[in-house]
Amino acid sequence: MDDIIKVEGVSKSYGKHQIHKNLNLSVKKGECFTLLGPSGCGKTVLLRMLAGHEAPDEGKITIDGTVVADSAEGIFINPERRGLGVVFQDYAVWPHMSVFDNVAYPLKMDKRPKDEIKKLVMKMVDIVGMKGLEKRLPSELSGGQQQRVALARALVADQSLMLLDEPLSNLDANLREEMRFEIKALQRKFGITVMYVTHDQEVALALSDHIAIMDDHGNIRQIGTPYEIFEKPVDAFVFNFMGIANFLPVRQVGTAFLVGKGDQKIPWEEPKGEAESWVAGFRPSDVKISRTGEGLKGVIKRANFLGAVMDYLIEIDGDHLRTSIETHKALSDDLMLKEGEKCIVNFRNLLWFDAEDLKEVNRV
Amino acid sequence: MSAIKKDSGFGVAHIILFFSIAILVIVVAVPVLLILFNAFFVNGHFNSRDFYNVLMQPETYAALKNSLIIASCTTIGSTIIGTFFAWLVTRTDLPYKGFMKGVFLVPFMLPSFIGALAWKMLLSPNAGFINKFLMSTFHLTEPVFNIYNYFGISMVEVMYLFPFVFIQVCGALERMDPTLEESARISGAGLLTITRKITIPLVMPSILSGALLIMLYSMAHFGTVAVLGVENGIYNIPTLIYERIHQSGGSFEAIRTGTVLATVLVVSAAVIIWAQHKILGKGHYQIIGGKSFRPMELKLRGLRYPLLAFCIFYIAFTIVLPTVVIFLVGGLKTYGLAFTLENLSLDNYKYILTEYTVTKDAIFNSISLGLAAAVITMFAGVMISYVIVKMKVRGKGILEFLGMLPFSVPGSVIALGVILAWSGQFGINLYNTVWIILVAYIARYMAFSLKSNSAALEQVHDSLMEASRSCGATMWQSLKDIVIPLVRPGMLASFFLIFLPALRELTVSIMLYSPTTRTIGVAIYTLNEDGETVMSAALAGIALIIIVTGQTIINRITKKVGE
Questions:
Q1: Taking a C-beta distance cutoff of 8 angstroms, is the pair A280, A350 a contact?
Q2: In order of start, what are the domains of chain A with their CATH numbers?
Q3: Which residue has better confidence, A355 or B288?
Q4: Which residues from B are below 8 Å from A when comparing CB atoms?
Q5: ipTM summary value
Q6: Could you tell me the domains of chain B?
Q7: Which among A51, A83, A96 has the least Cβ separation from residue B4?
Q8: What is the model's pTM?
């Protein structure tokens, strides 16, 4: 079997607050799997259940073929026996131990011989780029360096599964990008499985082999490759979560399909599916604007010059959509529009969602 | 993955919880319950009528009234003085403010009953040095001052208790966001209006909370009243309990009176603590942030130096003068002689340290009791705080409730409770041994240990422990490698917070001592009662030296930890 993590029917609540209900998930060996969702949706709780810091109220968790938690059977294996590497959101680097001692700790717990510990720790310190700093205390390190110590500590004992909880959230943008590639490189190098939790879709897209999107109620909406998640979202939530999204309602009157509350007909192919009304979803970059020609008539409500791009807010019969156009293109095509000016709107890619349940209608 | 092993299902958490509950039940809850039981049950039947009758006996009623009067006067006096000095050192341009702030905390170190002894030597109507001096200088036939009354007792208590308010109000004034006052000023309010409408309402919770602390302390305070009141027939609740238990040799009637009075103390303490929680729990307090600001300072102008002189005079009068008197009297050959060089020597000090068994025993007892109580209470406190702050186990609620108890049980109540619990009724008789004092000390100081250890544990983020578990350490291993090293400063603080007060403890020890188990506090008190004033003063002097040295060491340590 090549599922390293298997979560079956897991439910968890704190008091009356239900976090997860009947959650199912599996992660393949050797992949980088990201759990992506808005803050407070329960991603961390799931990770903590995997690590053994929380027990599920219901359901079963299997790690590499061993049941580590099963409420029905009364099985619960303590965190120290799960053989995982865990990196915490706040690093959890022990402030009273030097970098060396922090990284050496898992090996000491594993009762490895002293000289082996020394060799492995120094190698790992080198890999995370902390050579020469091993005698320092965490208080003498920057946030990014503490981050690396936490990573080294999780990797040193050669665990085959790593759990990472938003480890990059406290870093500045440059360091975040750098560490993102480093984690990916380490994962490939050691051939380990990584379960990564974040609310940052950019990190998720860059790192993952598979992404699971979790909504505010702790339900998994979609699991797929970064490409699938981004290009073929199953519903409006996923589409909206993966970037700035525009939604235009479309309704059917007789045989005509009308946009929004107005009476403009849709200038493109008709939506499919059984629905009675739809929502068309698209990114700002999927909007084409022009001064004349066929298309929906709109009015510029707000024009923002953002340097490289122009950002417009366009109103079409009471509904709003955002679009951006590269400044040099806007200049060459005479599309530097002012507030109140009229324009014609067309679209490149459209996704159709059923207005009732916001599910994608073309999905098979 | 061979690293995954089956779990043994060993419930370490439940064992720790069980021990924590057991300690608090045995040490605190049982004594308190026994007091309540004995107060309300006569011959095994509930009898509230009898409770009422005991309360209405003239002596008990008088003691209740006295406790209330003295506590009220002390509270009002301390609040005024504490708030005034706090304002002076935080919000004005008084010279040497930082130094003065430290000086105002010195009374914390002085045991108030030693202060009371000193003031007795100075102001007692017949033999007080000040009275004698004034009488001989101005050829008076009547003494000018009499300290054996409510005013004298309250005055002495105020001198040594006002730091409770001072420290709270200082903290609040320093942490208060000055923009709150500045915006009032911009809106055109004068300084008086700002003080009245902005500053005082904001620091009111701190003032009240400090005042309630003093009220609680004073209601249950033994030493000062024992030294200054009893001679003139003024008993408060703790002194009456002591008197009854001591004189009657533990008769049923005496125990009953004691338990009824103790019940009153427990109830008042509970009410006071409840009120304090209410006040501090109110939203007001949140306006005071954790950050340090530079507050607006009032220019004292011409009053700068007169006010500084006043502060120095106050310190000299309340701290330096009594301390000097203690040391001088301790050096006299006989009490009553004039302080001349030929009458003074170090002989008394040498005698009590090397030859006099009563004082030698007392010093030994106090130090060993203090050490034992501090070590045991420190470890018990860490364990209990750990369960309360960090663990998620069922049944924790009971522990949280029990953990509140030590804060609200006054010393004399604990003493009476341990007498009831450990005098053989339950098969173990510790009465008249040092062990009963040790048990009582543990109960008395548990609150200190819980407070400082919970504070330290709250600083240790849960993820540090979880990280070590995920690195393969068991719960015990993680406690040993991660939690204990990180809370060590808090443990050390709790050790000293227990050890130093235990050295000078009087309220509990006086109820429990036997001729061979005197503590320093008991020895000072009894020697003084027996007329051995110079020996008593010399021992008090030595106690002061030990306390001040110890306090200096703590300050060093806490400063180092703070860095």
A1: yes
A2: 3-239 (3.40.50.300), 246-354 (2.40.50.100)
A3: A355
A4: 1, 3-7, 461, 463-464, 466-475, 477, 481-482, 485-486
A5: 0.80
A6: 13-49+346-563 (1.10.3720.10), 57-336 (1.10.3720.10)
A7: A83
A8: 0.79
